[in-house]
Design a protein that fits this description.
The protein is mostly helical. It is built from 15 helices and no strands. The longest helix has about 35 residues. It is globular, with a radius of gyration of 21 Å.
Length: about 375
Amino acid sequence: MRLSDVISKEACNKGRQFELDLLKFILIIRLAPVHVFIDSAQPGALDVLGIPYFYDSVLGGVIGPTRFMILMGVGLGYSRHGSAKEVFRRGIKIGIIGFLLNVFRFLIPSLVGFGITGDAERYLEPLPFLFFGNDILQFASLAMMLMALFLHFKLTPEKIFGVSLLMSLAGNFVRNVDFHSIPLNIIFGHFIGVEDKSEETFIFSDFPLIIWFLFYAFGYFLGKYYTHLKDKNKFYAIVSPICIIVSVVFIIWEIHGGFGMMMGEGVNVFYHMTTPEAFVCIMAFLGLLGIYNFISPYIPEKLHKPIEAVSRNVNSIYCIHWVLVWWTVDLAVYCIKGDTYLKYSYAFLIGYAITVVSIILAHFWSKFKAERKAAYEKKK
């Protein structure tokens, strides 16, 4: 088979791609259960094979955030608003949303929890890191601003991906760094892999830019070429089996060996993954996307619009679900029980209940924004 049988010189695969929406939809409905299981697990449960480990290190690890970042890059590759200025503005907006999320997710419930329980160790001591640390929205903000810089200098998707690869390689040598200063660890944790070695604080950089930018850059590279795919079935028939076999074998090897990106909390947590591990995550993404591509024609047409709608509301659902998780598990459950430990069945039910509520609230928020925008346009 020739390359020209799969890829066209001209863009021919435009518009929304249902397999991408389906993949994002599946990721979204797992968000709340993953975070409920993480917050409600018994001590040590995240580090041994079992249901909490599966939700944390598998669903919430190798096949979770990496795919969101790749999809974010694919979206940029398809976007009609992908100029450097527009991407930079989007990065600033995401940064502001991340700050506001931390106010409602961490600051307010922590102060309420301390007011109710008087437990400073639980609610006040970790607050500076939780509030100022680098979660996925903070990373997305920095990644967009860095991407805007590259776009300003008119770097091609290939060159941007090449720079991201160099960043990832450099990240192999600046992982688990300790500046022995809480402010410095928090600040530099946004850019490189930081971990406080004293075990007296809560500082661990979750999404350091130097390591994670690779996923966003790959997504942008993929998105640009995805528009030129004229036969996705042929493409995935070749790519997906290879990617699935390699990634599954590698993941099982790491789980069995007890090292690398599949581990739970600790020095080898997947946030500070090596470059080969990052490529395994990319291969896992391509492998699964191929599966979704082949099953997409069998999804009833009446489900396409709801799936697409949920996919469009990913940012709102993400923010809403996190607020609900913290107010439910870390505040309500802790204040009632004196701890956050839940039976697996309760964690499962609470997680998916929060998912449903988050999707519904995000739908009405999206509707409200659309009506407000229409009213504004009418006044002009």
